Amino acid sequence: MTFRMTMQTLLILQALLLDPARELYGLELSGETGLLPGTTYPILLRLENEGWVTSRREDIDPRAEKRPARRYYRLTAEGASQASAAIADARRPSRTALRRLAEGGVA
Amino acid sequence: MTRSVPTFRRRERRRAASAVMWTCGVGVVYAADIIVFLLHATGVLGDVGHAVLATADLLLAVGTVYLAVIGVIGGVRLGISSLRSLHGDRTLRRDATEAPLDQVAGLEEAGFAWRLIRLCALLMPPAAGRRWLEEAQSFLAEAQPSWRRRAPGSYIASAPQLIFMSWTRVITGGRSRASR
To answer: If you count residue pairs, one on A and one on B, with CB atoms under 8 Å apart, how many are there?
Structure first.
């Protein structure tokens, strides 16, 4: 992993991992994660640059559909395995947290 | 929301007049100012004395005030249209098949924020800017009102990061770190 794995990135990966074959567009991703599009877009772009995510622009006639074309995002095979590992890693309690717990305090 | 032809023409005429003022005013004032200083610096004018330097300072002051006034009354708009033409209007041009950009419900609501988003897109490489605009346009067109209110601000807040990211990608030739 060559980029910072933030909580927001994990949320997006988790949303995409629910069904790796399913394509999600920006609004759906925001709905699933609760993140604003200004947050999700740079993360998706970074994931795409890293080859974890692939995207395609919907091929529609906006006038007929009465809405602009969406951009759909989907995890790549490599992205899905990396994302699973990253989420599993994030769920593992850190050494610091365990030490604090052993010392009897969480503050 | 359609504009009547006379209003449109008036706006165009005003924009043209503003462009002429911009070119003549800023161009002449600053060119004169720079020439005076260069001639003085290279010694061509020799000891020009206080009168010439004071004139140059006055020109600079006038130029600055002029810039401020123009900036307030329409320079920003002119700047945007100039940038648009520099980009060959690629960033903001709509495809013939696309719905008119500003007539999408969410964009009308976003108003000034949408204009800011478009301005930010102009600061990105054309392809990246276009893609970002398409994404924002799609989101704002379909989002619920509560999202629509908050989304433009988040797009604008993320713009500096995206501008940096997209130019970095262009400069590095689009290599991702993973592929290195």
So the answer is: 85
